[in-house]
Amino acid sequence: MFSGFSGKACADRIVDSESRVLITMDAYHRAGKLNDHKGKADIAVDGAGKEGFKVEKVLVWRRYPDAYHSETPMKKGRDFFVDEALADYHGKEVAPESMEATETLFLMYTSGTTGKPKGVMLTHGNFTSNVVNALEVLPLGPQDTALSLLPLSHSFERMGGHYAMVHAGVTIAYAESFDRIAANLQEVRPTITLAPPRVFEKFYARVKPQDALERIKRAFSEHAATVK
Questions:
Q1: What pLDDT is stored for residue 178 in this prediction?
Q2: What does pTM read for this prediction?
Q3: Exposed, middle or buried: residue 139 (CB in 10 Å: 0-12, 13-18, 19+)?
Q4: Distance from C-alpha of 151 to C-alpha of 165, rounded to nearest angstrom
Q5: How many angstroms separate the CA atoms of 22 and 79, rounded?
Q6: What is the DSSP letter of 226?
Q7: What are the angstrom distances between the C-alpha of 127 and each of 103, 139, 162, 228?
Q8: Rounded distance between C-alpha atoms, residue 74 and residue 81, angstroms
Protein backbone atom coordinates (compact mmCIF):
# COMPACT_ATOMS: atom_id res chain seq x y z
CA MET A 1 0.00 0.00 0.00
CA PHE A 2 1.73 3.15 -1.27
CA SER A 3 1.68 6.12 1.14
CA GLY A 4 0.11 8.37 -1.51
CA PHE A 5 -3.07 6.29 -1.64
CA SER A 6 -6.11 7.00 0.48
CA GLY A 7 -7.76 4.09 2.25
CA LYS A 8 -10.69 4.31 -0.18
CA ALA A 9 -8.42 4.22 -3.25
CA CYS A 10 -6.63 1.17 -1.90
CA ALA A 11 -9.95 -0.55 -1.12
CA ASP A 12 -11.04 -0.11 -4.73
CA ARG A 13 -7.82 -1.75 -5.95
CA ILE A 14 -8.15 -4.62 -3.48
CA VAL A 15 -11.63 -5.44 -4.75
CA ASP A 16 -10.66 -5.08 -8.42
CA SER A 17 -7.52 -7.24 -8.11
CA GLU A 18 -9.11 -9.70 -5.65
CA SER A 19 -6.08 -9.40 -3.38
CA ARG A 20 -6.07 -11.53 -0.25
CA VAL A 21 -2.96 -9.98 1.33
CA LEU A 22 -2.23 -6.29 1.97
CA ILE A 23 1.38 -5.20 2.53
CA THR A 24 1.82 -1.82 4.20
CA MET A 25 3.89 0.01 6.82
CA ASP A 26 3.19 1.43 10.23
CA ALA A 27 4.29 5.01 9.43
CA TYR A 28 6.08 7.15 6.85
CA HIS A 29 7.98 10.44 6.73
CA ARG A 30 6.58 13.49 4.97
CA ALA A 31 7.64 17.11 5.40
CA GLY A 32 9.85 16.12 8.31
CA LYS A 33 6.99 14.46 10.21
CA LEU A 34 6.34 10.79 10.93
CA ASN A 35 2.77 10.03 9.81
CA ASP A 36 0.52 7.14 10.81
CA HIS A 37 -0.05 4.81 7.85
CA LYS A 38 -1.52 1.65 9.37
CA GLY A 39 -4.81 3.52 9.83
CA LYS A 40 -5.17 3.81 6.04
CA ALA A 41 -4.68 0.05 5.71
CA ASP A 42 -7.53 -0.61 8.13
CA ILE A 43 -9.78 1.77 6.18
CA ALA A 44 -8.86 -0.11 2.99
CA VAL A 45 -9.58 -3.52 4.50
CA ASP A 46 -12.90 -2.33 5.96
CA GLY A 47 -13.86 -0.72 2.66
CA ALA A 48 -13.11 -3.91 0.73
CA GLY A 49 -15.16 -5.84 3.27
CA LYS A 50 -18.17 -3.63 2.65
CA GLU A 51 -17.86 -4.57 -1.04
CA GLY A 52 -18.00 -8.23 -0.07
CA PHE A 53 -14.25 -8.97 -0.34
CA LYS A 54 -12.22 -10.18 2.65
CA VAL A 55 -8.51 -9.48 3.12
CA GLU A 56 -7.03 -12.45 4.96
CA LYS A 57 -3.68 -11.01 6.05
CA VAL A 58 -2.12 -7.57 6.54
CA LEU A 59 1.69 -7.57 6.60
CA VAL A 60 3.18 -4.51 8.31
CA TRP A 61 6.72 -3.23 7.84
CA ARG A 62 7.94 -1.26 10.84
CA ARG A 63 9.64 2.01 9.95
CA TYR A 64 12.09 1.48 12.80
CA PRO A 65 13.15 -1.91 14.25
CA ASP A 66 11.29 -3.12 17.34
CA ALA A 67 9.11 0.02 17.47
CA TYR A 68 5.52 0.49 16.31
CA HIS A 69 4.67 4.03 15.19
CA SER A 70 0.92 3.84 14.67
CA GLU A 71 -2.03 4.58 16.89
CA THR A 72 -4.03 1.90 15.07
CA PRO A 73 -3.79 -1.43 16.94
CA MET A 74 -2.70 -4.63 15.24
CA LYS A 75 -5.56 -7.09 14.77
CA LYS A 76 -4.73 -10.53 16.15
CA GLY A 77 -4.86 -13.32 13.61
CA ARG A 78 -4.91 -10.93 10.65
CA ASP A 79 -2.07 -8.44 11.11
CA PHE A 80 1.58 -9.53 11.26
CA PHE A 81 4.88 -7.67 11.52
CA VAL A 82 7.06 -8.62 8.55
CA ASP A 83 10.27 -8.79 10.59
CA GLU A 84 8.70 -11.26 13.02
CA ALA A 85 7.18 -13.35 10.23
CA LEU A 86 10.57 -13.64 8.51
CA ALA A 87 12.56 -14.43 11.65
CA ASP A 88 12.29 -18.21 11.18
CA TYR A 89 13.58 -17.92 7.61
CA HIS A 90 16.71 -15.87 8.28
CA GLY A 91 19.69 -17.34 6.41
CA LYS A 92 17.58 -19.98 4.69
CA GLU A 93 17.16 -20.50 0.96
CA VAL A 94 13.70 -20.88 -0.52
CA ALA A 95 13.42 -22.97 -3.66
CA PRO A 96 12.09 -20.97 -6.64
CA GLU A 97 8.76 -21.91 -8.13
CA SER A 98 8.66 -22.41 -11.87
CA MET A 99 6.11 -20.25 -13.70
CA GLU A 100 5.20 -19.56 -17.30
CA ALA A 101 6.51 -16.32 -18.80
CA THR A 102 2.94 -15.39 -19.75
CA GLU A 103 1.67 -15.57 -16.16
CA THR A 104 0.87 -12.28 -14.45
CA LEU A 105 3.60 -10.99 -12.15
CA PHE A 106 1.53 -8.13 -10.74
CA LEU A 107 -1.08 -5.51 -11.58
CA MET A 108 0.06 -1.91 -11.86
CA TYR A 109 -2.77 0.61 -11.65
CA THR A 110 -3.02 3.79 -13.66
CA SER A 111 -3.24 7.06 -11.74
CA GLY A 112 -6.93 7.59 -12.37
CA THR A 113 -6.48 11.22 -13.41
CA THR A 114 -8.40 10.63 -16.66
CA GLY A 115 -10.92 8.11 -15.38
CA LYS A 116 -11.28 5.07 -13.16
CA PRO A 117 -7.87 3.48 -12.40
CA LYS A 118 -7.17 0.42 -14.52
CA GLY A 119 -4.99 -2.50 -13.51
CA VAL A 120 -2.32 -3.20 -16.14
CA MET A 121 -1.40 -6.89 -16.23
CA LEU A 122 2.40 -7.18 -16.38
CA THR A 123 3.83 -10.65 -16.90
CA HIS A 124 6.99 -12.38 -15.77
CA GLY A 125 8.13 -12.33 -19.40
CA ASN A 126 7.67 -8.55 -19.59
CA PHE A 127 10.04 -7.85 -16.76
CA THR A 128 12.47 -10.70 -17.37
CA SER A 129 13.16 -9.50 -20.92
CA ASN A 130 13.57 -5.90 -19.74
CA VAL A 131 15.94 -6.89 -16.94
CA VAL A 132 18.12 -9.13 -19.13
CA ASN A 133 18.35 -6.54 -21.91
CA ALA A 134 19.05 -3.68 -19.49
CA LEU A 135 21.93 -5.55 -17.85
CA GLU A 136 23.50 -6.13 -21.25
CA VAL A 137 23.86 -2.35 -21.50
CA LEU A 138 24.64 -1.70 -17.82
CA PRO A 139 27.24 -4.21 -16.56
CA LEU A 140 26.26 -4.10 -12.89
CA GLY A 141 27.25 -6.55 -10.16
CA PRO A 142 27.66 -7.16 -6.41
CA GLN A 143 30.35 -4.47 -6.29
CA ASP A 144 27.72 -1.81 -7.05
CA THR A 145 25.35 0.14 -4.80
CA ALA A 146 22.17 1.80 -6.06
CA LEU A 147 20.27 4.66 -4.42
CA SER A 148 16.56 4.22 -5.12
CA LEU A 149 14.69 7.54 -5.48
CA LEU A 150 11.27 6.54 -6.81
CA PRO A 151 8.39 4.62 -5.22
CA LEU A 152 8.21 0.97 -6.23
CA SER A 153 4.73 1.63 -7.58
CA HIS A 154 6.54 3.42 -10.43
CA SER A 155 7.01 0.94 -13.33
CA PHE A 156 10.49 2.22 -14.19
CA GLU A 157 11.67 1.88 -10.60
CA ARG A 158 10.10 -1.55 -10.25
CA MET A 159 11.98 -2.85 -13.28
CA GLY A 160 15.25 -0.89 -13.21
CA GLY A 161 15.66 -0.02 -9.55
CA HIS A 162 14.31 -3.26 -8.10
CA TYR A 163 14.25 -6.38 -10.31
CA ALA A 164 17.35 -5.51 -12.35
CA MET A 165 19.36 -4.64 -9.23
CA VAL A 166 18.31 -7.79 -7.37
CA HIS A 167 19.09 -9.92 -10.44
CA ALA A 168 22.58 -8.40 -10.69
CA GLY A 169 23.26 -8.69 -6.94
CA VAL A 170 23.45 -4.91 -6.46
CA THR A 171 23.00 -3.47 -2.95
CA ILE A 172 19.96 -1.16 -2.87
CA ALA A 173 19.64 1.83 -0.52
CA TYR A 174 16.34 3.73 -0.38
CA ALA A 175 16.26 7.52 -0.14
CA GLU A 176 14.45 8.79 2.94
CA SER A 177 12.64 11.58 1.04
CA PHE A 178 13.20 13.96 -1.87
CA ASP A 179 14.55 16.60 0.52
CA ARG A 180 17.07 14.09 1.89
CA ILE A 181 18.41 12.85 -1.46
CA ALA A 182 21.51 15.09 -1.36
CA ALA A 183 22.38 13.86 2.14
CA ASN A 184 21.62 10.25 1.22
CA LEU A 185 23.92 10.50 -1.82
CA GLN A 186 26.77 11.54 0.48
CA GLU A 187 25.95 8.80 3.00
CA VAL A 188 25.52 5.93 0.54
CA ARG A 189 27.99 6.96 -2.19
CA PRO A 190 26.07 4.95 -4.83
CA THR A 191 27.66 3.83 -8.07
CA ILE A 192 24.30 4.17 -9.86
CA THR A 193 20.92 5.79 -9.40
CA LEU A 194 17.98 5.69 -11.79
CA ALA A 195 15.31 8.33 -12.33
CA PRO A 196 13.24 9.88 -15.14
CA PRO A 197 14.28 13.30 -16.53
CA ARG A 198 11.77 15.12 -14.31
CA VAL A 199 13.70 14.20 -11.16
CA PHE A 200 16.96 15.58 -12.54
CA GLU A 201 15.11 18.69 -13.74
CA LYS A 202 14.05 19.27 -10.12
CA PHE A 203 17.67 18.90 -9.00
CA TYR A 204 18.72 21.46 -11.58
CA ALA A 205 15.92 23.86 -10.62
CA ARG A 206 16.99 23.77 -6.99
CA VAL A 207 20.67 24.34 -7.66
CA LYS A 208 20.83 26.52 -10.78
CA PRO A 209 18.84 29.61 -9.66
CA GLN A 210 20.95 30.06 -6.54
CA ASP A 211 24.19 29.57 -8.46
CA ALA A 212 23.06 32.09 -11.06
CA LEU A 213 22.09 34.60 -8.36
CA GLU A 214 25.47 34.28 -6.67
CA ARG A 215 27.27 34.84 -9.98
CA ILE A 216 25.16 37.94 -10.67
CA LYS A 217 25.90 39.33 -7.20
CA ARG A 218 29.60 38.65 -7.67
CA ALA A 219 29.59 40.33 -11.09
CA PHE A 220 27.88 43.45 -9.71
CA SER A 221 30.29 43.56 -6.77
CA GLU A 222 33.35 43.22 -9.00
CA HIS A 223 31.98 45.85 -11.36
CA ALA A 224 31.24 48.25 -8.49
CA ALA A 225 34.84 47.94 -7.30
CA THR A 226 36.06 49.22 -10.67
CA VAL A 227 33.74 52.23 -10.72
CA LYS A 228 35.30 55.47 -9.48
A1: 78
A2: 0.72
A3: exposed
A4: 15
A5: 9
A6: H
A7: 11, 18, 11, 69
A8: 9
